[in-house]
Specification:
It is built from 7 helices and 9 strands. The chain is of the alpha/beta class. It has one domain: Tetrahydropterin Synthase, Chain A. A 7-stranded mixed β-sheet has the order 7-6-2-1-3-4-8, with helices on both faces. Strands 5-9 form a two-stranded parallel ribbon. Helix 2 runs antiparallel to helix 4. It binds ligand LPXRUNBV. Ligand LPXRUNBV binds next to helix 4. It catalyses: 7,8-dihydroneopterin 3'-triphosphate + H2O = 6-carboxy-5,6,7,8-tetrahydropterin + triphosphate + acetaldehyde + 2 H(+).
Length: 204
């Protein structure tokens, strides 16, 4: 059984070495839509794969890091990286280039790591990430599966190789979120989640 949750964010980038001229030399932005697809072979006490409400804490925070931020490949020109850090309070340093393909891999990787470290509270048995689809535009998306995350030809993904600006970290519910993930600390799901008011533009 699979469920899907949609997340949205606006992000700016340059994707070096690609074929599209506008894409590789000019900072530009996209309104991304991310489909996070989870699967399980057993349902929890609420007869759900995973309560959608539980996706509004750490996983939403980490995905929302990209919102109104610039992200760059940590192998980019040091002058460009320094300028991104100087002129944007919200930035993310990535160990891979910010193509739609890598957005789908990175978000799959983070969600998978968070779920693996989550202490479940409501009988969730074997919930895991099945796929992430990153829609970069209305016409183009990339879809990632577990094999793609593990594929080193596509770039090795290690928690320690990502960096978030102070402003990004300060807007998480827990500013220590990523540090805890790296330290392997458990995330305990709340036994009850409160409904977010209608009109929250980030989560549907
Ligand atoms: N496989 C990929 N191809 C391209 C990516 C990518 O991440 N993966 N990214 C880009 C650029 O970021 C670009 O801005 C988006 O390209 P494109 O789809 O061509 O955008 P358009 O808005 O021009 O698309 P239309 O179909 O004309 O609306 C390039 N390629």
């Amino acid at each position: 059984m699979r469920i899907r949750k949609l997340f949205k964010f606006e992000n700016a980038h340059i994707v070096r070495n690609c074929s599209s001229e506008r894409c590789k030399h000019s900072i530009h932005g996209h309104s991304y839509q991310i489909e996070l697809i989870l699967e399980a072979t057993r349902l929890d006490h609420g007869q759900m794969v995973y309560d959608f409400g539980l996706l509004k804490s750490s996983i939403k925070d980490i995905i929302d890091s990209f919102d109104h931020a610039i992200c760059f490949w940590n192998k980019d020109d040091p002058e460009y990286i320094a300028a991104c850090k100087k002129f944007s309070a919200r930035w993310i340093s990535l160990p891979v280039s910010p193509s739609a393909e890598q957005f789908s891999r990175v978000i799959f990787f983070w969600a998978q790591e968070i779920l693996a470290q989550t202490q479940m509270q409501n009988g969730e048995a074997d919930v895991s990430v099945y796929s992430v689809i990153a829609h970069e535009t209305a016409t183009g998306y990339a879809q990632c599966f577990a094999d793609d995350v593990a594929n080193v030809q596509m770039g090795k993904l290690i928690l320690e190789d990502f960096e978030f600006s102070e402003q990004v970290r300060s807007e998480w519910h827990d500013p220590e979120l990523y540090a805890k993930l790296i330290r392997g600390e458990r995330f305990t799901n709340p036994s009850v989640t409160m409904q977010v008011q209608a009109g929250n533009r980030d989560v549907e």
